[in-house]
Amino acid sequence: MTQRPSQGEAPLAIELRGISKAFGPVQANKDISIQVKRGTIHGIIGENGAGKSTLMSILYGFYKADAGEIYIGGRPTPIPDSQAAIDAGIGMVFQHFKLVQPFTVLENVILGAEDGKLLKPSLAKARKLLTDLAREYELDVDPDAVVEDLNVGLQQRVEILKALYREADILILDEPTGVLTPAEADHLFRILKGLRDQGKTIILITHKLREIMEITDTVSVMRRGEMTATVKTAETSPEQLAELMVGRKVLLRVDKTPAQPKETVLEVRGLRVIDDQGVERLRGIDLDIRAGEVLGIAGVSGNGQSELLEVLGGYRKAEGTIRMNGQEIALTGSASDARMRRMQGIAHVPEDRQREGLIMEFRAWENVGFGYHREERFGSGLFMDNTALRTDCEGKMARFDVRPPDPNLAAKSFSGGNQQKIVLAREIERDPDLLLIGQPTRGVDIGAIEFIHKQVVALRDKGKAILLVSVELDEIMALSDRIAVMFDGRIMGERLPSETDANELGLLMAGMTGKPVAAE
Amino acid sequence: MTDALPKWADILLIPLINLILALVVSGLVVALIGKDPFEALSILVTGAVGSAYGWGYTLFYATNFIFTGLGVAVAFHARLFNIGGEGQAALGGLGCALVLLYLPLPHWSLAIIAASLGAALFGAAWAAIPAYLQAKRGSHIVITTIMFNFIASALMVYLLSRVLIVPGAGGSPETARFVESVHLPNAYDVLPWMGFSRSTPLNVSFLLAIAACVFVWVLIWRTRLGYEIRAFGQSEPAALYGGISSVRIIMIAMLISGALIGLMAINSVMGEAERLVIDPVQGAGFVGIAVALMGRSHPVGVFLAALLFGALYQGGGELTFEMNGMTREIILVIQALVILFTGALDNMVRAPVERAFLSARKRPRAPLPTNPVEPGGHSDEKKVEP
């Protein structure tokens, strides 16, 4: 790698002084100062909405700070746009990759950084560099593979390669492990450590305490737009970090008693789904869920969990049989199926609350009836009873501690956790026999996670059946009474949480069935 | 930011600023061709609203635009871009004319009901085919509706020159006049003391247009169907999850849209021309798009925007008469500028106005030592989409 001319051997890679940024009335960043030493992995942790992404967007030139200064390598460096950030040696790996799907790896790497009008010299140069990087940092990717054929772990490597090709000395990664299997995450961490040992500086944004503890050297905690603390990772604990993030003591475990499963509520046999492209998404799923238990479905996202939820929720066509309380239910995927499901006692908190669970432009009160808007309680005949909806919404907001408790606010104005509480209130209070719940705490702050988990356990204790789909292994382990692991449209196996561990589940999630080979 | 603006600013202030900008630029255009923009503006305003005569035409045009604007607005709520207003209104005219020509209707009050049914039915039917193609086959409604405008136009030419033409009556492509008994009372008949002339085109269908506004408001904001239309329009994935049938919503929204647009014929065909002529729509279908955009798809907004465009039509017409060198084309430029500023360039004005409102709201808080962040309220992280 070409070494950037060092500026007086300043030990600091980045220093931010007094950065402030407001969006309208919301102060996203408040007088933030932070120092990141060269050659370290620096974690930034905070709840959703704490201002982490805003801060990084300022550093990468997407937003202009209202106040404050950025020093790169000891020199004041204004960053008006992302080109300036790249010139300053900053590379960013976004949560949602910015890759051109039908292009090859090589083409993606040089995109926007071509040396001349002709592609060939750039491609040749990139190819050589890629081979070198692969050797050095375990960053192997086939340069000629088309990006859309690569799995997410490899696509992420392409993003890192892109940054390194642009001679980044400082690499920012925004929630990099959200889409990875545990094994892929481990691999990523090895790559990052390798980069650090070569003198690169890495900033890791995450909300996962475990990752912070595992890989960072220093960690900064953000809360409500402020930097509340910067500590050495070796001198802190997950409990302390959680407290710094939330501002109060948080229970990291879920308190629950052993399940008392009763009769079978849902019976799934030979469920198959073939999508519009003719790809088989579910390849014969068999499942039973009983009253009073939580069945957790673990797996890396994209292995059929979403399709399973959609079939059960009544809006995806499938083959096979499903019995709900002994009655066979229709699998045509038409709109009437989705309505029938609700009458048959199936409630559904969808994985993507902003796309499916809520109408973001609708006010909170309009959302609390969504899906149930044809029921008698919300109107008569052709007409909606908006007053009934408003009253219902006020009650739900009080019982589920939605903040701010204003039914007239649009759904998009609430934070992730409060949005989820609105969906949860709507679905749980319908008093279903079976609750489908997908990614219940994705994009939800720690304080709300605790609340949501409690609600799920309480519903189980009321004797309801719960199907939980989550990519967060910790969440699956904490909430489930039984765990089924999905891979490539199949159930790879079922385990009891007490008799398994993250290692075994990780192997199942990667599609390996046999007994795990003893590592040591 | 959500809810950055109070409702009145959203519905009135911003369109007003847009309008003023459009007029300023129009003034520059007028000055550029060597005319006095202030004189032009004065003629335009006087011509539109300076006399009962002017008001008669302004409100007559506005009535057309209310119907087409409402139709486009209903489709907008389902996120369907119905630009087939020209064709649907023409077919509405056909439905209206057929009813009035071939049904023995003793009195205008019965006739307006029957003709409304005919016009709405034909307008809806013309919208039904693109709607079905969109709902079932995914053919984009913008493409199909605009193609149906051309088909409608050809169909009307054929029918009026070959089928419905009155033999030996001078050979102009139009139907026979409707009988005297179905003549709609105009503003002169209803409000004789207001100074409208005997031949004013403003007629009772203006009241029908107001009723249509009320109907659309109730439909969109008070019925389960309206709720489903809006939900579908805001988020198709959510509609799927919520058990709302996309086929049903697309069909129903487009049928209602086509029916409302078809009703325009009650004003233009039954109320004014009293026969079906070759182009009964005169661009009102397209103006309806601008009206719906400017009126934010809200019936009150549509009503006000229709008034504005009615005034522009009428005032613009006067301008071509009164001022030498103000050709029809210049009037079109002015109307286009209004559409450009109120529809397409809306965000140009919106962003600074929102900022002004926010800073005005924030200022009183500034002296506080800490800057309060709303508890658990707005998510302050923005998604970065460069």
From TrEMBL, chain A:
Gene3D superfamilies: P-loop containing nucleotide triphosphate hydrolases. Residues 14-249, 266-513 form the ABC transporter domain. GO terms for cellular component: plasma membrane. Keywords: ATP-binding, Cell membrane, Membrane, Nucleotide-binding, Repeat, Sugar transport, Translocase, Transport. The keyword Membrane applies. It is a peripheral membrane protein. It is found in: Cell membrane. The keyword ATP-binding applies. This is Simple sugar transport system ATP-binding protein.
TrEMBL record, chain B:
The chain crosses the membrane at residues 12-34, 54-76, 88-105, 111-129, 141-160, 202-220, 240-266, 330-349. Residues 377-386 have a biased composition (Basic and acidic residues). Its main location: membrane. Pfam families: BPD_transp_2. Keywords: Cell membrane, Membrane, Sugar transport, Transmembrane, Transmembrane helix, Transport. It is found in: Cell membrane. This is Simple sugar transport system permease protein.
